[in-house]
């Protein structure tokens, strides 16, 4: 998603300014073109040379030529850069710069450029907790938010001052996700499309307190739902038990067991064009569940739990799909392609997303995934390790053509 994207990074004066180096390096690694503007205070914390070396471009600190007698500088840098950028990120954003942005003060290269940009503006405040909590700062952040700026909320933790509270710059990954989602928000290629996503594990009851479940976190399915809604789709998310927050704009239906998920999918699938089954549905459930908690007996007898198969929800959808596009997932630890191909054919899928939880960075609960997408014509697309959110966009790119 970041390939060839033009990212303008504004760095202001705060101890977290050194983290701008990591951001520049990562954005470059992901294929973005990065230009940096620093305030004078920022140069107290990190040198322009560092960011210029990493971005491979001149870093702008002042709008003025070094000496008006010795040189001129053609062009109107703040306007040029403002029009150039696909996205502007101010990281870290100090209380001072936030106040200037809120009131429209343009007294340096960064704040002047901020008035010229036409792209989404992301602001990552980072400062000491009292400065952050101060009503003036909170008010200014509110003004910027009302104006459509995206605020990357600081994390709570230990601060440079030794105090503990909100004000820390978040880690790289959530910042990259915000950048990706802001960029995706500008592309509405799924407008008017109905997308049904299943996510998470299912719990199959043994008795009122015990169940058979699996370690799925739901992160992949939730990332797909979030990415689809950002691209303009109407999204229904049928979720097994998960602690994840419902992405904004997504209609979520909570279920617990495979049978409940099957019921919800049967009720919902007809009105959706794309059906993406990312849930880790249990293949087996206890043939009967006890009404009361199973007690230990005095002797050493261990109760036996007889299992029966659950309904294969995806197979049902494959058999009833008509014009719908159906995407399944295959969790394979060996012979990935051969097993996935078999599943795709058996369940009459259009695409199958293959992941191997034994690969580094692709396990349950991780924020990243290394996927392959196989289509019904036998074509395979392989992707490197990436965030689940980025992988979600790859899946949507693929099915949307
Ligand atoms: N799936 C489903 N209903 C089930 C089991 C699985 O809809 N009862 C869906 C999953 O959501 C996933 C796909 O089927 O999209 C693959 O699930 P998986 O468990 O890997 O495949 P199985 O067909 O169950 O085969 P196996 O367990 O032998 O690998």
Summarize the structure in words:
The protein is α/β, with parallel strands linked by helices and 401 residues long. The protein folds into two domains: 6-184, 3-Layer(aba) Sandwich (Rossmann fold), CATH 3.40.50; 194-400, Rossmann fold (3-Layer(aba) Sandwich), CATH 3.40.50.10300. It is 31% helix and 22% strand. The chain is built from 13 helices and 21 strands. It has helices spanning 19-29, 48-55, 77-84, 95-103, 109-114, 129-133, 135-146, 172-184, 219-230, 258-268, 313-319, 336-346, 388-399, and strands spanning 6-11, 33-38, 87-93, 121-125, 150-151, 155-158, 164-168, 194-199, 204-205, 211-212, 234-239, 251-254, 274-277, 284-286, 307-309, 325-331, 351-355, 368-369, 371-375, 380-382, 386-387. The strands form six sheets. The chain has an eight-stranded mixed beta sheet with strand order 12-11-8-13-16-17-19-20, with helices on both faces. A five-stranded parallel beta sheet has the order 2-1-3-4-5, with helices on both faces. Strand 6 (155-158) and strand 7 form a beta hairpin. Helix 1 packs parallel to helix 2 (48-55). The longest helix has 13 residues, at 172-184. The two termini are 15 Å apart. The mean pLDDT is 92. Bound molecules: cytidine-5'-triphosphate (CTP). The site of cytidine-5'-triphosphate has 14 residues, from helix 11 and strand 16.
